[in-house]
Each structure stands twice: as C-alpha cells, then as structure tokens.
Amino acid sequence: MCGIIGYCGPLDAQKVLIDGLTQLEYRGYDSAGIALFDENSNIHFIKKVGKVAALKKVCEASPISSHCGIGHTRWATHGGVTSENAHPHMYGHITMIHNGIIENYQELTEAFHLKGKLLSQTDTEVSAAVLNELYKGDPLSAIRGLLSHLKGSYAFCIMFDDRPGEIYAVRNVSPLVAAYTGSGAMIASDLTALLPYSKKYFVVPEGKIIRLTAYQVSVFDICGNREAPDYMEASWNTDAAMKNGFPHYMLKEIHEQPEVLKQTVLPRLKNGLPDFTAEGIPDSMLKSVTEIRIIACGTAMHAGMVARSIIEPGLRIPVTVSIASEFRYEEPMITQNTLTIVISQSGETIDTLAALRLAASCHSPVISVVNVKGSTIARESDYVIYTHGGPEIAVASTKAYTVQIAALYLLFCRMALVRGLYTDEQARQFTSTLLKCSDTMEAMIGRKDLIREAVSHICDSPNAFFIGRGMDYAFSLEGALKLKEISYIHSEAYAAGELKHGTIALITDLVPVIAIATQKNILAKTISNIREVKARGAFVILLITEQTKTDDDLADLVIRIPETDDKFTVFPIAVVLQLIAYYTSVQKGLDVDQPRNLAKSVTVE
Ligand code: F6R
C-alpha cells in the first residue's frame, strides 16, 4: 500500500518520478506528490488529491528542472484524503515519504512536544519531525536514532535540505527495491517502477540505510559500515507491465492465463511427474506431515480453498484454510508435523507474513506460493514455489489466482505420489489434465460475447448471489469477491444448500443468481437448490459443463464450460467469473483497474 519512488541521476527527475508513480499507482491512488531538488538546491513540492494523472497535469504545466527527487502515491491510513495529508511531508530540514504504519505516533507526538506544530494528521509527519529533532548534520546517525524510537512498519525515502542530490531510505517490513541503473540511482516500492531502467535490482535489507546519489547506491549497516548490495535479476520484462493494446490491465491479465499456467507448470515437470527438487522441497517432509494449514488473504485465500477441496480428500489428512488476519488470534495448534502453506501474489501482505512468522515459530515447515521474486514472504519461507504469472497490475487479481491453484495442484500431486496414493501413471494423467486447462481457459476467453450477454442481466441490480456446493462454492466465493470489488454490486457467495436456512429470504425476481454446478458428485443436490431460487423468481445464470444435461426451465441463461475432470473445472470457471466482473464494471463505466478504496499489496494490518 502506497507507492514510493526516488531518483538521482542525469535524467529529468520530474519525468522519472511521474512515470514511476504511474507504474506504482495500483498500490494506492488517494493522492500523489513529489518533492524535487532544483538546480539551486532548493526543494519544491507538488501534491494533488486524486490520481497520478492530476499530479502529472500540474507538473507538466510548471516543469521543474531537477536530477534528484522523491515521489509517493497514497492509500490513506492516518488522516483523510486531503492535500495536507498527501506525501511528501516536510518538517524543518526533512522531506519524507512513507509506506507503512507507525504504531506509536501518538506517544512520539507527546514525547517530542509536537502538538500544535504539525500540519497534517499523518504518522509520517510525526516521523519527519522526530528525525528533524535528531538531525545534527549527519543523516546516518539521525536515521539510526529515529529507528530506535519507531514501532511499526515503514519504508521511508528522505531528503535533507542541506544534502542536495542525496536520498536516504530505510525500511522495516514494508517493501523497497533499489538499483544503480545505466541512468542513475533508483529506489521504489516494487520492481515494476525500476523495470524500464534496469533488470538488475536488490531488495533493500531491513534495518540497513541506503544512500542514493547520481553516481551510486550505497548500503550501510546499523554501525555505518558499507555493505555490498545483493543484486538479483528480474525475469519479468518491461512489456509484461504494459497494457499491450488491451483497454485495461485486468482484461490483459485474464487473457494471459492460458500461457502463464503453462509457465508455472512446465518447468516443474520431469517425465510428466511433478518435481520440486529445484525448490529444495524434501519428499521426506511431504511424506511425513500429518496436517496442512493454508493461510492467505482475499483471492489468494480462495485459491487455498480450491486446493483444500482436492488435498484433504486426496491425501486423507486434515487441511484447514485460514484468513491470515484471523489466524494469529485463533491461538492455532501447530506443530513440526503441520505443513504450513502461505499463498500471496505480492509476497508482501502483512497479515500473511505475520501468520507465516507464527507458524515458523512453532517449527512448522513453511512453503510459500508467491508471484513476486525476492519478496518478504518468499525470503522468510523455508521453501518457495514461485508462480510465474508475471506482474499483475490490475488491483483485482485474476491470473495470480489461477497460477496459485496450478502450483498448489502440482504440490498436491507430488504429495500424492510420495505418499503412495498416486501411481506414476495417475500422476502423469493428473499433470497432463492440468496442462490442458490452458485450452479450457482459452475456450472461455473465446466465449466472451455470451458472457457479456449475461452481464446485461446483472449490471443494474444492486445485489447478486453466487451459489454452489463443494468446490463450486469455493469458486463462488471468488466470483462474488471479483464482482463486488470492481462493480460495487453487493455480491454474496453462498453454499447452495445453506440458503434455505435464512438467506433465501433475500431472493426475489430482482436478484440475479449465478449458479455454479460443475461437481458431478453433488450435481443433483445443487440442481435442487437452483430450483429453489428459480421458484422465488431469481434470474438464474447457470455455469455448467458442456455435456451436463439440464431441463430448459432450470436457468434463464446457461454458460457451458468444456467437459473436464471435476477437479479442474476451476480454470474455465475462473475465466467466466472474471469476465462477468470485468464486463459489469466496464458497462457501469467504472475504473476497472483501480477500484475505489482498494490498493494492490496490502502492507498494513
Ligand atoms: C482481490 C485481491 C485481493 C488479494 C489479497 C491478497 O482481487 O486481489 O483479495 O488477493 O489482498 O494479496 P496477496 O496475494 O498479494 O497476498
């Protein structure tokens, strides 16, 4: 949450910062601002409420010649969405941008007698004021002093008014990556902002202080000793973070799914069998664990629920799926025999990270399924299965969900194999069907016109229901989340059999119901539940497989997915649900990629 960028070098700093903020905007878009050293070493600020485009317009109208500056795009936590609360914040010698939450900002306000002296309601300005108090001409020692006072998470970029051409940065939990590129030094919340300049980058180590100048990026440990940064190479290319002719990132990312599924699965197949040697995951551990805890947030948690539906029945061991923000407070029973699987596209979601740390402290082996290379969750896990989804820019997650499921399915298959529950032949059959899901997704992308027709029955409704049983219920949860977050239609997912215990009271002829019925073992029962809502007047959009026979009067509109093994219907169904949400948002004229109140990468609790 919140995007940060800093640049020192020969290029036009104002342009570099605005371009970077445009790339980072998905991290938050309540307000944006930049601060620049001009050629006379004076600092200039520009801040605007709203999106980066508004800031860009002002900047273009009055360009500032600069080669050093910092920029921020905000997702509001402390203090409303106002220009006073927009970053950068200036206090005395200090100009600062921040991503994170300083938990003890009220105590610091009192301890440093700041009441009445601050212009904003932010914890960031408090931090800037404390740093100003501590600053006696030595940035490193002042920053060290500041860190000793702070409780919470932070990524700061700081300029001192008497140190033109220098940017300092430090972080705890909140992400920062940096690089010395061919055209200057850069630092940013995530890689997408650096990619146009460099594929080589390093993750800023926690607690280390970074100094950027036009000539180098230096890393200092807490005693002030220099350290060599640990550079890594990005596998993503610049193109991957562009729209490439699609009207929205979300649509582009939906279309990428058939390809990225293969990219995630193929490198992990050896003779058709799943293989995690490269990840170092020992078969002995996969064989000996007696239960599995899956922990994640939002869409990633829904991916975990789908995986649970095949893992528990397939391995005959208990599998629970927890919402990461709840997990820590449930006083969970975890032992060294519990395999913990955390799932996160960004690898930075703070609740998921906290859950991981709790599980690790109980000596549970932790496997993370992560998209972003080198992210905190990836680095702190015992084993990482990277999904090769490429950058996901739209706030609503699409391709990350399907590749997470693909990675978890592969892991399940390996576990079934090493536990003697699958023969090689069965495992090969499984992975071959998984790969073919690429085609079933492609087929549904090709049926977008039918899906668009369904949307015309949803668009004007204030409410919608998604119903299903078993795995179909897990898919419904994701369908409802996708629709509500980008169309603002109140959507609920319900286990179809549970409706009659209260919620069916809400079903009228004004409520569209998206019914998912792909699971053969429970089809007859799901169909009875669909009849119950149809009898109450609901407009039913039915999602079923090609060969499932249904009576004509069961639904008002039927969308058929290719026939496939029940375990794999999630892939084509996910495409349908994503496109329903996408076209509804488009038809309502909403901001598909950056829906209100949301931000990608939730780095606050
Ligand atoms: C919804 C969505 C979120 C994320 C959730 C977890 O479309 O994107 O629900 O899935 O915030 O994020 P990661 O996967 O980055 O941990």
Could you tell me the mean pLDDT? Answer: 95
Structural class: alpha/beta
Straight-line N-to-C gap: 11 Å
Structure ligands: fructose -6-phosphate
| Main sheet: strands, sense, barrel | 8 strands, antiparallel
Count of individual helical segments: 17
What share of the residues lie within helices?
Answer: 25-40%
Beta-strand percentage range: 15-25%
Number of strands: 27
Shape: globular
Q: Going across the biggest sheet, name each strand in turn.
A: 3-2-4-1-10-9-11-15
Radius of gyration: 25 Å
Low-confidence stretches: none
Short structural description:
This protein is α/β, with parallel strands linked by helices and 605 residues long. Helices cover 35% and strands 24% of the residues.
Task: Name a few traits of the molecule.
605 residues; alpha/beta; 7-stranded antiparallel beta sheet; 17 helices; 24% strand; globular; binds fructose -6-phosphate
Structural notes for this entry:
It is a single chain. The protein is an alpha/beta fold. Helices cover 35% and strands 24% of the residues. It contains 17 helices and 27 strands. An eight-stranded antiparallel β-sheet has the order 3-2-4-1-10-9-11-15, covered by helices on one side. Helix 6 packs antiparallel against helix 13 (424-445) and helix 12 (399-418) runs antiparallel to helix 13 (424-445). The chain is globular, with a radius of gyration of 25 Å. The termini are close together. The mean pLDDT is 95. Fructose -6-phosphate is lined by residues 297-300, 344-346, 349, 352, 396-397, 481, 485, 601-602.
